[in-house]
Structure formats: structure tokens, C-alpha cells
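Might I ask for a little of your time on a matter of protein folding? Here, with my thanks, is the record as I have it:
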Amino acid sequence: MEGKEKLNKELFGLVGKNISYSFSKGYFSDKFRNLQLINHEYVNFDIDKIEDLLSLVNQFKASLKGFNVTIPYKQSIFNYLDEVDATANEIGAVNTVKLTNNGKLIGYNSDVVGFEKSILPLLKKHHTKALILGTGGASNAVGFVLKKLKIDFYKVSRNPTGNREISYSEISEKLLKEHTIIINSSPLGTFPNIDQKPSIPYQFLTKKHLLFDLIYNPAETAFLIEGKKLGAQIKNGFEMLELQAEESWRIWNK
């Protein structure tokens, strides 16, 4: 669709790089169709560098109401926002941006809401400690929620730096026995590399463990399959993705 035609739309979109695979475009296109919002459109804004953002916003400012942000711009977009919500600021990542009527760009993080609502029904009394595999932007959103829920955690990294970070080699049977929530926030196991999985001692998992993978494609990653074999409760990231999309929609319409 040409730019002039887009000006007649209520426009939403996804800002990222190499995002033809995007879940968001299909999700919101279906949502608009189901709600009979024929004047609404969700598009992929695939940009080579974050510096292209403002010219894109200016091009569509008459119709653009908000957009999601994905890899690799969740951190670098901070420099282009007029305001950042307190939660997104603490996490250090923005994945939802709202355009106000006076043209301001305000950043939010809806991953937090998606993750919390998705994991909360699965938690049991013995789920008091967690391991977050990976230390990227997604792990910060996960850590924010665990703090809120008063669940102690370590982040696991190939190159640990902080005092709450450990290496994969430090995950022992004793540590796994205590940390019964394990969350994969790394990209390991994402399609098409479905045989990859984080390097943890899976043989020590039990039915008391909850394994949560932020990946949604494939539906059962190698990480989740290993847990399932040993009776662990498993959950992928698809519901979290849907919930964060709905939170984005709420933000754009509030």
C-alpha cells in the first residue's frame, strides 16, 4: 500500500529488522478483521537502522497511532522517545510506543504484563526460586516480574558479570533442587534451529519443576521436551505473546 493510502487509515505497526516472520502483523490483522475495524491496519516497518525511525514516524504521522518494537531496537529506541513509562525505564527495554494527539512518542513495556499473566496460574507454593537462562532484554522483563512476585532468582549467562548472575557450569543438582522455576529467555531452540537447547543438567529435573520458554516456534522446544520427559510442568511463550499484544492494544487506546 502506498503512503498516501495509509494516511486514510488508523495505522499501527511493528518496528524491527528482518521481521517478515512477525507474529504481530498476523495477530492484529486478524483482530481488526474480527472486530470489523475496516479502517485499521497493522504493518511491518522493517528498518535497517534505528536512525530511520523519526523519518518513518513523520511520513505516517497523520495516521500512525502506535507501534510495537522488536529486536534489535528495544534498547536503542529510548533515544527517540519523548517519555518512557516507569516500568519500561526500570527494565531498560521498550516494546510498545504510543503516539499522543500532540505527536509525542511514549514508550512502554507490555512483555511484563504478558509474562506475569501467563506464568501466574502455573505457580505453586514450592515455586520460590528461579533461574533465568539468558541475560538479554527479555530477561530483564522476566526479572522485573519475579521481583514483583517475591521469587528469588539468578540469571544464567555464558559470561556472568553481576552478583546475581552465574555461569551454566555452576548449575548443580543442589541448585536445581532449590530453583524449581527455569525460564529460557535466550533464543536457543528457535525455529529453524530446533535441536539447540540451553546447557543445563536436565537429568536433575523433577515433576516439581516448571519450565517456561519465551520461544513460541516451535511449540515445544528441545528445552521443554527435556523437561516434559522428566515430568516437569512446561509452558511456551505463545500465550505471553498474545497477552502482551492485548496489553499493547490497551495502551494505544487508553
About this structure: The longest strand covers residues 10-16. Residues 114 and 244 are 4 Å apart (CA to CA). The chain has a mean pLDDT of 94. The radius of gyration is 19 Å.
